[in-house]
Sequence to fold (550 residues):
Amino acid sequence: MTATPDRAGTVPESTSRAVPADDAINAAMAEAADRLEAVAPGYLERVRQATGRLAVRARPAGVGGHEDATPDAPAHERRGADAGGPLDTGAGAARLALLAVEDAATIDVDVPVASRQRAAQPLKAGVKRLVGWYVSYLGQQVTVLGRSVTRLGAVLVERTEELDARTEAISGDVARLAERIERLEHPAR
Amino acid sequence: MRIDQFLPDFAPHDAIGNHVLQLRRVLRDAGYESDIWADIIHPPVARQARHYREHPSVRPGAGDLALYHASTYSDMAGWLAARAGAGDRLVVYYHNITPAEYFARWEPVAAEGCGRARRELASLAPSTELAMAASAYNQAELLDTGYRSTVVSPLLVDLDEYHAAPDSRAVARHRARGGTRWLFVGRLAPNKCQHDVIGAFAAYRRAFDPAARLVLAGAPASARYLRALERLVADLELGDSVELPGGVPFGELVAQFASADVFVCCSEHEGFCVPLIEAMELGVPVVAYAAAAIPETVGDAGVLLEDKDPLTVAVAVGSLLSDRERRESLVRAGRARAGSFSLPLTSKQFLGHLDAHLRGS
Fold:
């Protein structure tokens, strides 16, 4: 049995290297940046901001995702709601809350009839048979309502995220405009 | 002796499905009895596998070996652990599991699945005799997860299949629109960062070639991420220069490679990345962000970038395509590199590891 990592000879020889940022590349970058700025002023910055908003790692704080979203977050969210815990309004929290709604939206009308008391089991089964049609009818309507609410939630979350993204996109422009107004109003500063 | 393969999801024409089929052939040729057992079996490969719950019970003392392909979560992991306790011998082949953080924002349920898959991987470590990794990058993760006996054995890919003549009409159709053609192949998933490819392409189009086109072939792993990509294309005013054809049939895939000028990969997490090998084999130069297993797959046969700022990637592509000699030399190096992952070589490596393990034990 192999007891230690055996890298040599098990994978084709890898001599990976990254292209160094030498002078020629720097010159090419500067030239391309100038060309881009000449044909489309501000476009590169727009591209950087737009792609940065979709990045998972090292994306700007407050943009896009919910940093604390953990794999078991829906369950956590549900526990939080049950316990009346603090309301998280982070960017990804709405999606997680929506998942909890989605999870709970389907009503299970197949009532369990098992019981520790022998006599209770047939009684439960009888009641289930008697009211089954009624419970199914109610359950169906509640399920439809739940799904409609989930859909509404999904639309609202999607819309909110779009607005968040747009707000983020224009905040830079607003800051620049404010700076410009400041300079115009106080040219001596 | 039986060496049966187990995998959660057996699909045709994907890297893991192809690998498993090749491994079965290699194992049977080597004289082992070997079948494929899966949880989800897609209809086109229904005749190639059976549901794992139908697997005969453990034959104590027979020394049979179960080879589990770990890539996602499955009840199969617990089932295999129980069988290992009953006397089956367990070998894990690790294809890698996408870190949950990549899906948490887009698909929290999928993120939960990724987390569960990693927990299952860790739970199998104590009962695993040997863990095989598709790359040294994956091997390092196995060691971190608690696996003691590990080896690297690259994925089995039949590169000869890619040399079937591409559909000439499809190639002509792709080429008719002119402009430089960028290509990336892979599921549309947040870890593969297609948004960065779009960003770099947008910069390239304005700075180098306004007629350039980008094809991002691959089925969406997240509908929300797909919508975000479509919005990004619209926001950056790229119109119909970006194509998102979804998963494409094999013939169309070969035609896309045959029409491409450059393969651009900005992925942040890959356990191996078969499309890089496909591109190199088919003479498409590779420009890639040096992350995860990508540097060891590409080796010296592609342009590896330390950052993936849109301008950096655009300039890397622009400089490469404008230098014919460098481009040709990279294509030659790419073919040689892909050759080092040829099916006879990787099959021999796999059997070598297996034989050494069986002899040692």
